[in-house]
Amino acid sequence: MAILILGLVLFLGVHSTRIVADGWRTATIGRVGELPWKAVYALLSIVGFVLIVWGFGLARQQPVQLWLAPRGMRHLASLLTLISFVLVAAAYVPRNAIKARLHHPMVLGVKVWALAHLLANGNLAHVVLFGTFLLWAALSFRAARARDRAAGTVYPAGTVSGTGITVVVGVAVWALFAFWAHGYLIGIRPIG
After folding, report:
1. DSSP class of residue 123?
2. How many domains is the chain partitioned into structurally?
3. Taking the complete model, does pTM exceed 0.85, yes or no?
4. 3-class state of residue 192 by DSSP
């Protein structure tokens, strides 16, 4: 569990600089330059991610069951992860109404994804992993909205085609992941 926690601290720590130290982040980028900042950020993120994957795999070998999720929670988790994939797609597809309305769909997608996994899994490793991501996503969303208000950020209106593409891409990637990639990469087949 210690490796998982170290990975979460490292990965989410670097992803939290805008939440807890936005001024320091801006000053550091100004001092060292954007490219060195991004290089260190990427390196720490990759190391943290590798530790999360490794630590989660180790923790799953000796599961500590906290509760058994009702069977229906797996169905709800599937629906919520579908929504989270559409939200993540909305972060990348230009001119969609989802981003125009929600402003930070990537972080909301992480929040919904984490909640879905918490509802469907009751062992300690899942609670630590997904609970930490849920907490981070909630704090990140709040900080991003505060930055938007302070800067007077206006998001462009969405179009029907942009929104349609967002939904199609999100559903297609979700289906690929739910029916095949989740089982292949993680060893658990949520559907099928």
Report:
1. B
2. 2
3. yes
4. coil
